[in-house]
Design a protein that fits this description.
8 helices; six-stranded antiparallel sheet; 284 residues
Length: 284
């Protein structure tokens, strides 16, 4: 594994209100795969993980093409849901046109977060296609922010399968949405208020196959520095088997200058739909 580095960025969002971010990310082929079909981008204000699929080089092409298109969005300085969706459409074209894309089903998951500031009011927006995940640890409690697009998750949601029964299910690797492998639908979005002390984990299923939610929470509690936390979780995933490529990003949030009313609102996670209306749900 290469040495993991913590990066930082500070942004003033209003008078006497500043957000400081530190983050780190890493990817590893794992112990049973011949190549790494994962890719990630951790570059303010966008933090995303892509987990490619498809035989031969297909998955690697899909994940790398998607990340390259999203990097261009970051470089443009205009990260938004609309810009991300345009980049994904271009990535699908890149995947289809690549000379080494020969397998049906070539595609990639995509999940992550970006910081959106409108009129001085900041919020996180999570996005998700597939079964890679975003976790949020707030007030020492870990919650899964995203919902998997998978056959197993559909069975759980319909009550036909329990979470315990989902472990080791023969369809556990079958996803229902991807970039490039099916009709491109917009990601699922969630708006999340920015709260001091929050930490996000963005990861491929190579991590969650080897670490439980409790394990992820444990390493976040033990390691305050993002790079140290990333290295600890990656090492544990490999030690536990490393059956798949493993990729993760940890983002740590510091926020100053919040008033009492702002503090009261930071426990909210809002579902964003196409009409931009929101339905509030408690993160707790």
């Amino acid at each position: 594994m290469s040495e993991t580095t913590t990066h930082s960025h500070r942004v003033a969002v209003a008078d006497q209100d500043e957000i400081g971010l530190t983050w780190a990310g890493a990817t590893d082929t794992g112990r049973r795969r011949d190549n790494n079909q994962d890719a990630f981008l951790a570059d303010f204000p966008l933090f995303v993980v892509a987990d490619g699929m498809g035989g031969h080089a297909g998955g690697e092409i899909a994940s790398q093409s998607t990340i390259e298109r999203l990097k261009a969005v970051v470089d443009s300085g205009a990260v938004s849901a609309e810009a991300i969706e345009d980049a994904l459409a271009r990535a699908v074209e890149d995947i289809a046109a690549h000379p080494d894309t020969t397998d049906e089903g070539t595609g990639t998951t995509l999940t992550g977060i970006f910081l959106d500031v409108v009129d001085g009011v900041p919020r996180w927006v999570s996005l998700n296609i597939g079964d890679s995940r975003v976790y949020l640890m707030r007030d020492h409690r870990l919650v899964q922010v995203t919902t998997d697009h998978s056959v197993v998750q559909e069975l759980i949601s319909s009550g036909r399968l329990s979470p315990e029964e989902a472990e080791g299910h023969p369809y556990s690797n079958v996803i229902t949405r991807a970039v490039g492998a099916s009709e491109l639908l917009p990601p699922d979005y969630l708006g999340i208020e920015v709260q001091d002390g929050d930490r996000f984990v963005i990861c491929s299923d190579g991590l969650t196959k080897e670490l439980t939610d409790y394990g992820i929470q444990h390493f976040l509690r033990e390691h305050d520095d993002p790079a140290t936390a990333v290295d600890a979780m990656l090492a544990a995933a490999l030690e536990n088997g490393g059956r798949d490529n493993v990729t993760l990003i940890v983002v740590r949030v510091e926020r100053t200058g919040l008033d009492e009313h702002a503090d009261a609102d930071t426990a909210k996670i809002d579902t964003i739909d196409d009409s931009s209306s929101t339905t509030q749900n408690e993160a707790e």
